[in-house]
């Protein structure tokens, strides 16, 4: 945060979302108490959740094949877009 500011937090959240959302959510919640703004924490948590959702969609598509990919990715993309849209509008 000191070196890269809010953008650094967002980048770490995206990287963390590749594997798990729980750890980054807990860390950002604690940081929101006195080190970062609530808006930055919420945005970073949503970024992590969206990345995690997309990764799971890709995994399901690769494992499940083309038909599964169509079903899973359509829902996954809508969910991720909804989360990001909510952050942008609020």
Secondary structure topology:
Elements: H1 5-17, H2 22-31, H3 38-64, H4 66-89
Number of helical regions: 4
Strand content: under 5%
Q: SSE string, helix = H, strand = E? A: HHHH
Shape: elongated
Per DSSP E runs of 2 or more residues, the count of β-strands stands at 0
Query: What do the pLDDT scores average to?
Result: 93
How far apart lie the N and C ends?
23 Å
In brief, what are we looking at here?
The chain is an all-alpha fold.
Report on the structure:
By secondary structure, the chain is mainly alpha-helical. It contains four helices and no strands. Helix 1 runs parallel beside helix 3, helix 2 (22-31) runs antiparallel to helix 3 (38-64) and helix 3 runs antiparallel to helix 4 (66-89). The longest helix is centred in the middle third of the chain and has 27 residues, at 38-64. It is elongated and about 45 Å long. The two termini are 23 Å apart.
Throw out a few tags for this protein.
mainly alpha; 4 helices; 0% strand; 90 residues; elongated
């Amino acid at each position: 945060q000191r070196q890269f500011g809010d953008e650094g937090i967002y980048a770490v959240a995206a990287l963390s979302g590749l594997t798990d959302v729980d750890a980054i959510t807990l860390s950002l919640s604690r940081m929101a108490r006195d080190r970062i703004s609530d808006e930055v924490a919420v945005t970073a948590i949503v970024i992590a959740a969206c990345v995690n959702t997309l990764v799971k969609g890709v995994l399901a598509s690769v494992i499940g094949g083309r038909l599964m990919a169509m079903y899973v990715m359509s829902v996954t993309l809508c969910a991720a877009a909804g989360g990001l849209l909510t952050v942008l509008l609020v």
